[in-house]
C-alpha cells in the first residue's frame, strides 16, 4: 500500500518504489514534516524522527511549555502569526482585519485513483490502481473555513502530486491573500538551487546557486509562466551530478504568475514552496465558494538530475499530456514563417508545399498573416477571417489543395490577443485587459483580450472553431506574443481586481478544453513568442510546444538541454531553419542543424524552393532518418551526457535509449574547434551491459558495458578527422 497511516502516533507514510514522504499530526493538531527522501521501511512509529527541545529567543504555543514552538518545527502546510516567523504557505484575511487562523486536523481519507482539479490542468490516471490519493481536512472553527490537502502517489512512477482546496462554509466572506500549492521543510541547507532562467530567444538556461540564509526565489508577474523563469525548482546536494546524488524537484502545473521560493532559517532548516505568486493576488471567497490551487509534482531522486528528469518525462508524456496525439508519432512539418513572413500568396504557399512534399514532409503549417489585413504585426489580430487578397479561394480550399498533395495542413492562431487596428477592437474596445483612465501599453503592437470574461472566451471560441470546422485542418499552432500590463477587467468589481490574472489563465484553459474536446484529432502546439509559456499547464492541452523562436543550432543546445530538465523530447518543437540564422546571424551546416533538431518534434522553417539539388538530397535523407527513428526519439529514455552549461561548455552530448535497450541514438556537438585538442571519448548511458551493439557507420561491434564504462574513442571513428566549428555527430546504435 503506497499510503500508510499509523493510528497510534498519527503519522502518514507516502511511498513510491524509491521514495518515502512522512509527516504527522502535531500536538496542536496541525501537520508536521518528518522526512522526505530515499525509501524507508515502514514502522509502527517514526517518533525517533521527531525531536524538539527548548531553544532561546523564540515564542511558544502553550503557556508553561517552553519547547513546543512552530519557529523550530518542520511543518507540512505552515501559517504565519502563531510562533512561526518564516513565510507561510497560506494566509486568510478576515472581515475583522485579522490574518490569524487555526486550521487543525479533522479527518482524512485514503482512496484508489486520483480526482480531477476543477478548471485546472493536472496529472491523471487511466486506471484507479495507477495512483493512491490521501485527502486531509483541516478546519478553522472560528471562521468556518476548511482546507483540503490532496496528495496523490504514483507508486511506479516515483512521483507525488500535491494541491490545496479552500472552502468557505461560513456566512462571512474571507480573502485568500496567499495560497501556495505545497511547502516542504528539509532538515538542513546543504543544497544548491537549480532553476531554468532566460529571456526571449534564450529560454530555460540552467542556473545553479548555493543556498544562503534568508530568501531566494524565482517568480513571474507577467501573466504567464514566462521565458524569464520556468515554474520548476530543484534542490540538489553540492556533489550531485547528472547521474549520482540526491535531488528534490518541484514542478508547478500552471501557466500564470507563480512563485518558487526557498527560505533558509537561523537553524539551517530549508523551506521550499511553490504556487501562485502572492504578489498582486487576492481571491475573495464568499459563503459556499471554494478555491483550488494548481497541482505541484514532487520528484525525489537519489540517482542524480537525469533520473529526476526521466521521472518527469515519463509522467508528463503519459499522464499529463492527453488525447489522440499523446502517444502518436508526430508528423514532420514545415512552417512557412521564416520562409515568407507576411509576404505570401496562395501560389507561393502551394509551391512551398509541393517542394516540401517531394522531400518527405508530412504537414504544412501556414503561420501568421493569413487573416484580416495582416501585412505586418500592426493589424488584424482578433479578425479570424481569411484574407482573400492573399488567399482568394479561402483557407478551406487551400487546405484541400494541400491535402490533395498527400499532406496534412496546419494553421497559426493567436486567440488571446487583439490589434488596435481590427474590426474586433473597433466593436469591443472594452474587451481588453486594462484599467480605465490609464494608458494601455502595447507589446508587438497588440493588446491582451480579457479572458477572465466568459463572453470574450465564447466569442473567440466561435471564430476559431468555425475555421476548424470549415477546413481539413490537422494542426493548430496557438501563439501568445505579449505579457500583461495594466492588469484590470471592466467585468469584475473593485474587490476582485486582483483575481484577474488567475481568472485569465482559467479562461485560457477553458478555451483549450473546449477546442481540444471538439476537435480531438487536431494536434495542438502551444507557443508564446517562442518559449514564454512552456510549462506543464500547457502540456495538458497541447502535447508539444514551440521551444523557442531561436532556431540557431548552437543556442538550441542550451535551450533543449535545459528544457529536458523537466519536459520530454516529445514536447519540444525543434526545427531546421535557414542560415545565416535569423535570430543570431550564425552560419551552421545543414547537418548540424538537423542533428540538433532530431531530438524533439522535428520540422523545417525555411524556403525549400531556394535549395539546390545537393541540399534537397540532404534534407530528404534527414527526414527519412527521423521518420525511421521518431518513435524511439519521442518515447525513449533521455540521457544528458555532457552539458553546455559546464565551465568550458564547448561540448554538449546526449542520447535516447529504447525501453527494451535494443536501440539508441547518440548526439555529440562541438561549438568551437580547438587546435591540437587531444582525444575525445564519449561515455554512453542506459545501454544493457550484456547486449552487443552495432553503430551505423562503424565497422565494429561493442558491448553495452564497454560503451558505458570504457567509452567510445570518437577520434578513431568520426569521419571528420579535423572537425570545424559547430560540428556534430549522431550515431544510431542497434542490438546485434
UniProtKB/TrEMBL annotation:
The active site is at 479 (nucleophile), 549 (proton donor). Belongs to the glycosyl hydrolase 36 family. PROSITE patterns: ALPHA_GALACTOSIDASE. GO terms for molecular function: alpha-galactosidase activity. It comes from Planococcus maritimus. This is Alpha-galactosidase. Substrate binds at residues 200, 367-368, 444, 477-481, 527, 549. It catalyses: Hydrolysis of terminal, non-reducing alpha-D-galactose residues in alpha-D-galactosides, including galactose oligosaccharides, galactomannans and galactolipids. GO terms for biological process: carbohydrate catabolic process. Keywords: Glycosidase, Hydrolase. Its EC number is 3.2.1.22. Residues 652-733 form the Glycosyl hydrolase family 36 C-terminal domain.
Amino acid at each position: 500500500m503506497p499510503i500508510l497511516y499509523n493510528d497510534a502516533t498519527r503519522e502518514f507514510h507516502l511511498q513510491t518504489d524509491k521514495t518515502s514522504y512522512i509527516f504527522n499530526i502535531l500536538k496542536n493538531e496541525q501537520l508536521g514534516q518528518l522526512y522526505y527522501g530515499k525509501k524507508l521501511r515502514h514502522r509502527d512509529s517514526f517518533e525517533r524522527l521527531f525531536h524538539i527541545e527548548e531553544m532561546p529567543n523564540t515564542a511558544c504555543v502553550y503557556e508553561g511549555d517552553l519547547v513546543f514552538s512552530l519557529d523550530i518545527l518542520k511543518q507540512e502546510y505552515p501559517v504565519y502569526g502563531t510562533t512561526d516567523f518564516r513565510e507561510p504557505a497560506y494566509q486568510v484575511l478576515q472581515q475583522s482585519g485579522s490574518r490569524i487562523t487555526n486550521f487543525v486536523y479533522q479527518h482524512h481519507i485514503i482512496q484508489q485513483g486520483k480526482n480531477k482539479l476543477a478548471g485546472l490542468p493536472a496529472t491523471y490516471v487511466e486506471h484507479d490502481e495507477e495512483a493512491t490519493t490521501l485527502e486531509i481536512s483541516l478546519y478553522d472553527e472560528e471562521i468556518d473555513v476548511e482546507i483540503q490537502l490532496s496528495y496523490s502517489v504514483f507508486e511506479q512512477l516515483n512521483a507525488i502530486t500535491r494541491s490545496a482546496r479552500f472552502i468557505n462554509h461560513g456566512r462571512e466572506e474571507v480573502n485568500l491573500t496567499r495560497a501556495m500549492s505545497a511547502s516542504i521543510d528539509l532538515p538542513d541547507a546543504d543544497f544548491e538551487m537549480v532553476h531554468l532562467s532566460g529571456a526571449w530567444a534564450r529560454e530555460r538556461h540552467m542556473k545553479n546557486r548555493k543556498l544562503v540564509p534568508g530568501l531566494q526565489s524565482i517568480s513571474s508577474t507577467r501573466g504567464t509562466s514566462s521565458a524569464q523563469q520556468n515554474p520548476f525548482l530543484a534542490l540538489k546536494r553540492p556533489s550531485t551530478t547528472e547521474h549520482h546524488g540526491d535531488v528534490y524537484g518541484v514542478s508547478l502545473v500552471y501557466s500564470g504568475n507563480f512563485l518558487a521560493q526557498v527560505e533558509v532559517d537561523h537553524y539551517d532548516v530549508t523551506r521550499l514552496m511553490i504556487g501562485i505568486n502572492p504578489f498582486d493576488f487576492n481571491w475573495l471567497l464568499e459563503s459556499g465558494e471554494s478555491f483550488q490551487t494548481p497541482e505541484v509534482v514532487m520528484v525525489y531522486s537519489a540517482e542524480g538530475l537525469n533520473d529526476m528528469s526521466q521521472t518527469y518525462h515519463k509522467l508528463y508524456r503519459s499522464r499529463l499530456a492527453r488525447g489522440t496525439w499523446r502517444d502518436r508519432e508526430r508528423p514532420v512539418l514545415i512552417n512557412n514563417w521564416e520562409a515568407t513572413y507576411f509576404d505570401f500568396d496562395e501560389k507561393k504557399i502551394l509551391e512551398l508545399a509541393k517542394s516540401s512534399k517531394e522531400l518527405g514532409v508530412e504537414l504544412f503549417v501556414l503561420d501568421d498573416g493569413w487573416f484580416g489585413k495582416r501585412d505586418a504585426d500592426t493589424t488584424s489580430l482578433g479578425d479570424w477571417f481569411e484574407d482573400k487578397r492573399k488567399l482568394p479561394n479561402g483557407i478551406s480550399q487551400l487546405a484541400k489543395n494541400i491535402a490533395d498533395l498527400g499532406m496534412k495542413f496546419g494553421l497559426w492562431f493567436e486567440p488571446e490577443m487583439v490589434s488596435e487596428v481590427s474590426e474586433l477592437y473597433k466593436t469591443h474596445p472594452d474587451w481588453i485587459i486594462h484599467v480605465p483612465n490609464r494608458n494601455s501599453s502595447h507589446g508587438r503592437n497588440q493588446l491582451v483580450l480579457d479572458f477572465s470574461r466568459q463572453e470574450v472566451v465564447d466569442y473567440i471560441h466561435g471564430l476559431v472553431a468555425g475555421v476548424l470546422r470549415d477546413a481539413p485542418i490537422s494542426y493548430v499552432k496557438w501563439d501568445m506574443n505579449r505579457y500583461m500590463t495594466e492588469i484590470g477587467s471592466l467585468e469584475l468589481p473593485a474587490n476582485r481586481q486582483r483575481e484577474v490574472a488567475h481568472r485569465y489563465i482559467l479562461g485560457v484553459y477553458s478555451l483549450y478544453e473546449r477546442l481540444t474536446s471538439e476537435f480531438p484529432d487536431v494536434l495542438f502546439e502551444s507557443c508564446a513568442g517562442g518559449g514564454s509559456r512552456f510549462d506543464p499547464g500547457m502540456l495538458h492541452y497541447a502535447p508539444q510546444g514551440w521551444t523557442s523562436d531561436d532556431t540557431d543550432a548552437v543556442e538550441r543546445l542550451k535551450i533543449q538541454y535545459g528544457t529536458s530538465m523537466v519536459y520530454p523530447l516529445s514536447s519540444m518543437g525543434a526545427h531546421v531553419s535557414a542560415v545565416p540564422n535569423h535570430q543570431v546571424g550564425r552560419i551552421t551546416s545543414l547537418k548540424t542543424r538537423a542533428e540538433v533538431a532530431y531530438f524533439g518534434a522535428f520540422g523545417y522553417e525555411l524556403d525549400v524552393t531556394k535549395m539546390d539539388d545537393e541540399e534537397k538530397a540532404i534534407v530528404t535523407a534527414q527526414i527519412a532518418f527521423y521518420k525511421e527513428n521518431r518513435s524511439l526519439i519521442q518515447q525513449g529514455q533521455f540521457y544528458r551526457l555532457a552539458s553546455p552549461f559546464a565551465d568550458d561548455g564547448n561540448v554538449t552530448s546526449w542520447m535516447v535509449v529504447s525501453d527494451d535497450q535494443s536501440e539508441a541514438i547518440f548526439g555529440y556537438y562541438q561549438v568551437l574547434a580547438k587546435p591540437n585538442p587531444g582525444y575525445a571519448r564519449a561515455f554512453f548511458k542506459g545501454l544493457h551491459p550484456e547486449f552487443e551493439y552495432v553503430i551505423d557507420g562503424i565497422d565494429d561491434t561493442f558491448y553495452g558495458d564497454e560503451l558505458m564504462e570504457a567509452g567510445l574513442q570518437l577520434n578513431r571513428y568520426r569521419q571528420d578527422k579535423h572537425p570545424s566549428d559547430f560540428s556534430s555527430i549522431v550515431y544510431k546504435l542497434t542490438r546485434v
